[in-house]
Sequence to fold (471 residues):
Amino acid sequence: MVSGLAVSARPALAQGEGESPPIIQSVSFEIARNQGVDPYFGPFDPNEPFDPASELAREGDWILITVVVSDADLPDEELFVRKTSTWLPWPASPSPEPPQMPGDTPNFHAPLYRSVGAGTATIYFRFLVPQWLGANQARLRGVIDWDVRWEIQIEVSNSESPGEEDPVDVYSFVLYAVEQVAFRPPNPPPFADAGSDRVVPRGMRIILDGSRTYDYYNVGFDVTNENIFEKDTLTFTWEWISGPVRVDPEQDDPHSPYAIVQLDVPDPNQPYVYRLLVDDNVNALPSSDTVQITVLDELPPETPPVAIIEGPAHAQPVGSVVTLVSRSYDPDRPDDPNGLLLEYRWQQTSELGEPLAPEEFRDAFQPLTGLTEKQSSWQALTPGTFYFRLLVSDGQFLSNATFAVEVIERETSAVTETADSAADSAAGKAADSGSTPDELAPTLPAGACGAGFLPLAAAPLAYCLVARRRG
Fold:
């Protein structure tokens, strides 16, 4: 079960002779449950009482919060209300980080309606449970019974910017939510990669390497980790297509991307062609790719290694961790298709390829790990376009490749204003009609739901699918 409600208050300090501080007298909750048809616009079930200490919300639900404040100086004295909703991660999970939702999230809107009478004020808030696209791996393991949680805090005072000596009454609670299964996106097919074409000497045992195969559904974690429940189990099948003679691959494990062939018959004009089939056991048809291997009696003189960088195809938000992976290989070492014997060095450069001074790149991109390894991770600190170089050495020759990463601001501030404006407009309609926001709530979400989370809806497919493995 979810843990209980948390209530705390700062001491009510004296404001002056004849004045009293505001005190939160009661907080009550209702929920308008999304029926799973549309993540933002409903439809919704009728409002019903809701207890965040023992009940779970779902993606797309509206939480309606009614706060009653007492202050003997009302309505002659001003009353200020602040709110925050902070996403709380689950630290014990080995799965990748969920979508970025820390801080004051834009789905917690300004008060819909505030009625102030002699000595009391009634304030209505609403919280839209956003769409996060996936289940928490800890919940799938049975450790917890929720997917996402937030700490929501409401403060009331008589000062717009209260200092340490100003009395502030605080009410906080934790909201827990689970995924709405109806909002799940389809599982995309994998993209088979049979590796680069090669030229090898006769008689060599060659490793057919499909490890570059890409499956969006499995991005961001180790699929062999037993703690990851929600994943694709890929099946790899290597087959001979053509060549001077038929040589079938030796493949012991269908879940391994590797196979071995020994090619003894050379023919410079007719390469061996092998096909890789990758099945995620979800989509109807497997993905396929082919590789050509040309066998010669003798290889030409040694050649430099080939430097290749694989990185994000889309713009990355500020604060995210960018991972760059080397797919480099040495044409002279067909027995090392993954480039494990090569030496690596990662650098951040200017647009012209010149090295940056340490104080320059630390202001924009902070190197985290792997500066001399096949994989390197960097954290984006500011928006802009940034350039990276990979130096690859086989001990004799040196090659390099470059890669550019675009970093953008998180698009939340303007969206929050739009959502709050819609809420204020709805509040005005409630006041004009004489209705309470609770009575209007089933129709109110249509005006603000989409505005609050358009950035999530428009996120790149790969990002959304990474977000499915929540922790």
Observations:
- The first strand starts at residue 23 and ends at 32.
